């Protein structure tokens, strides 16, 4: 099982996190939404907020739980099953929270802020794109996430099945089932389920029903008296 260690980048991570959180606390940036923030960072935070509130009606979008962090990494393709696994994602989340607590005595130990989120992504980026520099690796990971939203599971589509189509084709019905539908495939209702007694006086199957009435009532105009 692969793992991610923060030791080689611990000082670098501390410096980056310290600068980012200091900027945020000074009011020059609202979690990456300041006026000087590049467009791509705004797109990144928008995705952060979408995943942060997923499944939690009380969430504000400013902090993200570990479950939603893992979903983001999965839905956006950060987890590839090779360089980055779900275990790596969980380890980085825990270590970034611990680092934040050690540096700033952050009270909450269950969530990460947007600034901590970017630090965590940076750790995963260096492992996912080992052939790239730190900044280039981060940029690649950011691209995977920007503009994305949580994938909603459990939504299924009705798929046409030849077997189902054959079983529901009323033109192929036989016997008593055939009698329940007309030529257009529309149900006949009670008439298709119950034998209705014919009280007309004609024998069943008689083809000349009504012809006598037509002869009797035939107009006599033009006939010799």
UniProtKB/TrEMBL annotation:
UniProt region (Disordered), positions on chain: 1-37
InterPro entries, A to Z: EF-hand-dom_pair (IPR011992), TPP/p25 (IPR008907)
Compositional bias segments (type: Basic and acidic residues): 8-22
A Pfam family assignment: p25-alpha
Family: Belongs to the TPPP family.
Protein name: Tubulin polymerization promoting protein
Protein's organism: Xenoophorus captivus
């Amino acid at each position: 099982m692969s793992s991610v260690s923060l030791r080689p980048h611990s000082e670098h991570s501390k410096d980056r996190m310290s600068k980012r959180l200091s900027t945020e606390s000074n009011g020059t940036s609202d979690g990456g939404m300041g006026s000087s923030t590049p467009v791509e960072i705004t797109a990144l935070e928008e995705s952060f907020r979408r995943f942060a509130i997923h499944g939690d009606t009380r969430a504000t979008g400013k902090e993200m739980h570990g479950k939603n962090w893992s979903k983001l990494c999965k839905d956006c393709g950060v987890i590839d099953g090779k360089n980055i696994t779900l275990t790596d994602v969980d380890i980085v989340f825990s270590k970034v929270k611990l680092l934040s607590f050690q540096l700033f005595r952050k009270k909450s130990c269950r969530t990460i802020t947007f600034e901590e989120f970017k630090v965590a992504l940076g750790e995963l980026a260096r492992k996912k794109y080992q052939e790239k520099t730190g900044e280039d690796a981060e940029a690649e990971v950011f691209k995977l996430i920007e503009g994305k939203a949580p994938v909603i599971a459990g939504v299924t589509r009705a798929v046409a099945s030849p077997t189902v189509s054959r079983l529901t084709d009323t033109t192929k019905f036989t016997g008593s089932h055939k009698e329940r539908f007309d030529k257009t495939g529309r149900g006949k209702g009670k008439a298709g389920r119950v034998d209705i007694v014919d009280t007309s006086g004609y024998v069943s199957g008689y083809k000349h029903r009504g012809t006598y009435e037509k002869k009797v009532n035939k107009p006599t105009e033009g006939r010799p008296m």
